[in-house]
Amino acid sequence: MHGIFLLGTAGSGKTLMAASLAECLARQGEDACMVNLDPGVLNLPYKPALDVRDRISVEKLMRDYGLGPNGALVMASDLLAQQAGEINEELQSLAPKYVLFDTPGQMELFAFRVAGPYLARELKLEGKMVLYLFDGPFCADPFNYVSTLFLASAVHLRFTLPQVNLLTKIDLLEEGVVKRILGWSRSPALLREALAGQPGGGASLLAGDLFKAVGKLRLDFSTIACSAKYFTNFLNVHAAIQRVLSRGEQEE
Ligand SMILES: Nc1nc2c(ncn2[C@@H]2O[C@H](COP(=O)(O)OP(=O)(O)OP(=O)(O)O)[C@@H](O)[C@H]2O)c(=O)[nH]1
Ligand SMILES: [Mg+2]
Questions:
Q1: Which atom of ligand 1 is nearest to the CA of 133?
Q2: Whose alpha carbon is nearest atom 17 of ligand 1?
Q3: pTM, whole model, 2 decimals?
Q4: Is the CB of 228 under 6 A from ligand 1?
Q5: From the CA of 19, which ligand is nearest?
Q6: Which CATH architecture has domain 2-133+159-173+220-251?
Q7: Given 64, 94, 225, 250, which is the most exposed site by the fewest CB atoms within 10 A?
């Protein structure tokens, strides 16, 4: 049983990616089950095998503790840490090949507080990895790309799990734009050039320095362009997942 945590900024496409990936895996004859860890979501495009909303109610927390919606979401996310035991038990009884974890819309609630990394650590899974979603249309701007890369690196720092970055929603981008963004992910020189061409010299320098700092971390991220809406490049996504998880098995 392997666990895949889908992370990314609000609206980057985590939930749809989780649903599409499960469908893709099922088509390849590999069973995957979905776990919803987002206590605040209203509608899901998939049927989760486990749903944190069955255990934690944001409305109830608001009522019981006199909290506003954001305070209740923070509390709900912190309470996730206490669910590790029960989630482990239920997953052991389901025992699929893959478990896809859809995480809260507000990424900081999961990634940058204690509960998310704690939960990821405590879950009894053979292999674990993060799929980090780069919102394609947002990342068409080189400044936005750099800040997203920075967030992806911060997420890696929090979870220290093997990570694959996905450039999502490419159906909304022209082919040339997708190529340009992938070029930035491979070549610092191309990104520097793009940043230099932007107005706001100070911000360009800062973004260039941020990029250099990320480069020095030598994080072995690969970036795959895809669309969860049209299943574009899903064979590559599947292959990358298999590669990362099987590498983990070999290292054990
Ligand atoms: N065109 C297109 N739209 C997409 C794609 N992926 C997601 N979307 C749309 O983007 C919006 C946000 O997608 P979600 O899957 O809800 O994103 P999320 O990261 O789970 O959002 P939150 O949990 O609310 O932060 C929805 O309207 C999706 O239909 C894609 O590949 N292509
Ligand atoms: Mg979502």
A1: 19
A2: 13
A3: 0.94
A4: yes
A5: 1
A6: 3-Layer(aba) Sandwich (3.40)
A7: 250
Reduce the secondary structure of the chain to three states and give it as a string. Answer: CEEEEEEECCCCCHHHHHHHHHHHHHHCCCCEEEEECCCCCCCCCCCCCEEHHHCCCHHHHHHHHCCCHHHHHHHHHHHHHHHHHHHHHHHHHHCCCEEEEECCCCHHHHHCCCHHHHHHHHCCCCEEEEEEEEEHHHHCCHHHHHHHHHHHHHHHHHHCCCEEEEEECHHHCCHHHHHHHHHHHHCHHHHHHHHHCCCCHHHHHHHHHHHHHHHHCCCCCEEEECECCCCECHHHHHHHHHHHHHHHHHHC
Question: What are the sequence ranges of the domains in the chain?
Answer: 2-133+159-173+220-251
